[in-house]
Amino acid sequence: MMRNQHMEHVNILLDHRGDCQNHRQTRINHQVHHADWNCHIDFPSGYYSRSNLVPESSELEDEQLLLLSDVIPTAYWSVEHGGVKKGDTVIILGSGPIGLMAQKFAWLKGAKRVIAVDQVKHRLAHAKKSNNVETYNFKEHEKIGQLLHEETKGGADVVIDCVGMDGTVPPNTEFGSKQDNQFGTISPIITASQSVRKFGTVQITGVYGTEANNFPLGDFFTRNVSLKMGQAPVINIMPKLYNMIENKEFDPTDIITHRVSLDEAAKAYDIFDKKEDGSIKVIFKP
Question: Is 122 exposed, middle or buried (0-12, 13-18, 19+ CB in 10 A)?
């Protein structure tokens, strides 16, 4: 499996509570160090405080808030932007952190069926146990798209791709990047095109950063399938999701499988990359 290393996410847990007076200065100066370059970013304090500060009165644990920076908003937006509504059948491709969270939100939107597709057994087991979804291991089905179309009696109302271009392809399927201009695979999009119903919706959340060879545009067009995609507006969604966590509408921590120190970072990355030791989400606790 090819991996796009710079797209991996690391979550470092820091205490979210602090002296709120420190955040009332006119501007907040942040220094960012990365590789061989440095830069300074100035955030107006009003903007920063509105979008990022946890209320001082919050009784939530740090781990409940940690994934508000990326995973939870992306998953929520995928379901919201995909138009999932009451009574829908929803297929979610990929049962990594975002896929698992998207399953929760699909149920909260009133979905009738939620189907998880992956090739990692412990991810699928977690999806079934924690989110009560139907599961399919595409490694065991050469024509997974056609199978899902049949099992949903004509296709799902919404298919959400939480995989992207660095995913693994089904058995006996070409990776797709041997041709010019494409990095990675569009196999998840092909599966989505085969498993969505006429007049259904495909939401592309997984990252595709290059041109796509053999994109199934004709299939989408002739069956009136709506395509939605893009990057989640994380900051705008955070307050709503904070309230949902506070109201115990979903558990944001059940995807955390490993809690390690920074000294164990290299080992943690290796476990995560190889999907070993039941790894789903690793957090560092300095």
Answer: middle
pLDDT for position 212: 81
**pLDDT tier at 1 (50, 70, 90 boundaries)?**
very low
> What is the end-to-end Cα distance of the chain in Å, rounded?
31
Buried b (16+ CB within 10 A) or exposed e, 170-195: beebeebbeeeebebbbbbbbbbbbb
Residue 254: CB atoms within 10 Å: 16
Lowest mean pLDDT among 50-54, 57-61, 90-94, 278-282: 50-54
CATH of 83-229, one of 3.40.30.10, 3.40.50.720, 2.40.30.10, 3.10.25.10: 3.40.50.720
Q: Which residue did the predictor score with more confidence, 135 or 172?
A: 135
Whose tokens are 């991810």? That residue is: 123
Residue with tokens 């830069």: 39
Q: Please, which residues have CB within 8 angstroms of residue 157's CB and are 6 or more apart in sequence?
A: 84, 88, 89, 90, 197, 200, 201
Q: Residue 93: which H helix or E strand, with range? A: strand 89-93
pTM: 0.80
Which residues are bridge partners to 40 per DSSP? 31
Q: How many helices (H) and strands (E) does the chain have?
A: 10, 11
> φ and ψ at 223, to 5 degrees?
-105, 15
Would you tell me how many other CB atoms lie within 10 Å of the CB of residue 18? 12
- Domain ranges for the chain: 83-229, 255-286
Instruction: Estimate the crossing angle of helix 71-81 against helix 97-108, to 10 degrees.
Output: 50
| Selection from 165, 164, 185, 188 nearest residue 176 by Cα | 185
Per-residue model confidence as pLDDT tens digits over 98-143 = 999 999 999 999 999 999 999 999 999 999 999 999 999 999 998 9
